[in-house]
């Protein structure tokens, strides 16, 4: 599949993970808020960045990668390792290190809450140079920095604000899919979709990365878990075969 695809009813954005787009009926429905969830080391940031980069490089979308944790230099180095050269997508993709932005807005943060400043900054970005795709990396850091007092209510209003951006949004989360669903985490209900990344033991000495769509509204998606690989310059999702 190439670029943003469209079925009879829903415009979709390709993940550029071979085999996984087919499991999503062509990709992520445009305009949805999707959690990219998994424990550390499962390549959440890389997957989110890959989706934005591959589409931006083809001019399919215009997007912003907003990092709250990893600095820009580190992220660009990580991108290059997986064949993503920012200069080939720079017309349609921006990387913003919000840690640096905060340092330049010290006077403003003294008068407004961290979350208010965050929203104001993103709204200004949207107005000055419109985008239709946003990655926020990560929800966990955002929560910590914002010091949410009433998590359920504040997350609800935060997701409502995200919907008001009229953009497709990926939120990375350190929570495993099991924790999100079995513990009834609020963001699992508020999000339109959940893409789970995990590290699976397959023997005493072998492990595999896995990818799975837990939830995706307006999509008849596969519930299967796929082995997640990067080979020959591309990401692939291959049907996982469990050992007896």
UniProtKB/TrEMBL annotation:
Domain KaiC: 11-244
GO MF assignments: ATP binding
Domain of life: Archaea
Pfam family, one: ATPase
Keywords on record: ATP-binding, Nucleotide-binding
InterPro entries, per the entry: KaiC-like_dom, KaiC_dom, P-loop_NTPase
PANTHER family reported in the protein's UniProt record: UPF0273 PROTEIN TM_0370 (PTHR43637)
Listed name of the protein: AAA family ATPase
